[in-house]
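User: Reviewer 2 asked us to show a designed sequence for the structure in our supplementary figure. I'm pasting the structure tokens here. Could you produce the per-position amino acids so we can include them in the response letter?
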């Protein structure tokens, strides 16, 4: 099936800090294929662009809790290292090196969590439920390629939406059905799915 696709545009994003690769492929003028490879495995899903809101949202946050944790463990590790350098006895080394190693590991763990909890992304959400379905790393692989790709998605969403010939009620049913499938596949979280479902009763008019 994939071999018969008419590929319109492909963009590959690599985040070395996260150990993650995101591949986006627009095909057949109105579909988007998304593949995310990271340390947790691979996720792949397809979307009809007509179910997306054409105006993306920039999401840039700083996870202060993990940043402060990282700084704390870095300071603690540095203090242990300075003390060990100034008191290089075998007894102290055998007693304190395990603590130094633990603080280093905790610092690295906090760094990884800081990177995961501090997104700098542009998000496309579902049209009616507002559920994030496409998350594009900002200015990756370059600002020019990123901007060109996002603009193309926006235009293709508008074009695909104009071609839809079903009413809003049917669109709502299609969207929540697709979100349920994405939830079952682990693409979106249970919390996001529940939040999206709760918006449906207010949109039936």
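Assistant: Here is a per-position design you can include in the supplement:
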């Amino acid at each position: 099936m994939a071999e018969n696709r008419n590929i319109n545009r492909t963009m590959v994003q690599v985040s070395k800090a996260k150990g993650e690769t995101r591949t986006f492929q627009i095909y057949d003028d109105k579909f988007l294929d998304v593949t995310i490879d990271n340390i947790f495995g691979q996720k792949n899903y397809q979307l009809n662009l007509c179910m997306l809101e054409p105006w993306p949202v920039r999401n840039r946050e700083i996870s202060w809790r993990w940043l402060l944790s990282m700084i704390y463990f870095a300071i603690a590790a540095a203090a242990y290292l300075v003390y060990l350098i100034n008191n290089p006895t075998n007894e102290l080394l055998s007693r304190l090196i395990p603590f130094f190693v633990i603080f280093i590991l905790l610092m690295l763990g906090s760094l990884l969590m800081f990177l995961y909890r501090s997104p700098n992304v542009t998000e496309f959400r579902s049209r009616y439920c507002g559920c994030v379905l496409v998350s594009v790393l900002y200015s990756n692989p370059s600002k020019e390629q990123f901007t060109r790709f996002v603009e193309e998605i926006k235009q293709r969403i508008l074009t695909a939406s104009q071609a839809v010939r079903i009413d809003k009620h049917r669109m709502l049913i299609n969207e929540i059905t697709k979100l349920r499938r994405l939830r079952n596949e682990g693409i979106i979280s249970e919390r996001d799915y529940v939040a999206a479902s709760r918006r449906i009763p207010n949109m039936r008019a």
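For the response letter, you might also mention the following. The domain at 2-59+120-166 is CATH 2.30.29.30 (PH-domain like). Residues 12 and 23 are 4 Å apart (CA to CA).
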